[in-house]
Amino acid sequence: MSAAAISPNLFEAARLGDPHAIASLLETAQPDIRRYARATCRSSADAEDATQEALWILFRHVGTIRSLLAFSAWLFSVVRRECPRLARKAGLAPAIDDDAAEALLLTRPENDLRLDVAAAFEALPPHYRDVALMRDVKEMTIEEIAVALGASRQTVKARLHRARALMREYLTR
């Protein structure tokens, strides 16, 4: 989706909760989401379901998106995660266990793997990305991360677990 199609004023109004701006943002984003879902999902039914799920998630979380520049990447990552989930649910794609996922990753060339890991970090929602970067890149402890974010240990651990699961899903799709 081109961020140019959405005015900064519309995006900011939607982010701040204006119902008319949110409706307009959903209407503007829908064709691009649907087009991307059709190219990404295995079936047209899954593409329609992924589009609806992405719009629903956008409606619920528009206030958490940091900037208009991050908007399209965030939205497309929702669709990118949703398509394999729907395929697994329909029995079209087997769920990959941790050992199979690790074996799959180890077969990739190192440079490709680095690029894929960087892209996986970028695809994470900001609250998961921050925790994963602090723990896995900066090698901070759970306690240090909790203090830095002003969050509880349980919150940090839950976000880290979810971030790693999303990254695993991204890397093995």
UniProtKB/TrEMBL annotation:
Q: CDD domains under this entry?
A: Sigma70_r4 (cd06171)
Segments forming domain RNA polymerase sigma-70 region: 26-90
Question: Which top-level group of life is the source organism from?
Answer: Bacteria
UniProt keywords, alphabetically:
Sigma factor, Transcription, Transcription regulation
**One Pfam match:** Sigma70_r4_2
In this chain the RNA polymerase sigma factor 70 region 4 type domain maps to: 116-166
A single MF term (Gene Ontology): sigma factor activity
Record keywords: Ribosomal protein included?
no
Give the UniProt record's GO annotations in the biological process aspect: DNA-templated transcription initiation
The record's family statement is: Belongs to the sigma-70 factor family. ECF subfamily.
PANTHER family according to UniProt: RNA POLYMERASE ECF-TYPE SIGMA FACTO (PTHR43133), RNA POLYMERASE SIGMA FACTOR (PTHR43133:SF51)
In its UniProt entry, what is this protein called? RNA polymerase sigma factor, sigma-70 family
Lineage, uppermost ranks = Bacteria, Pseudomonadati, Pseudomonadota, Alphaproteobacteria, Hyphomicrobiales
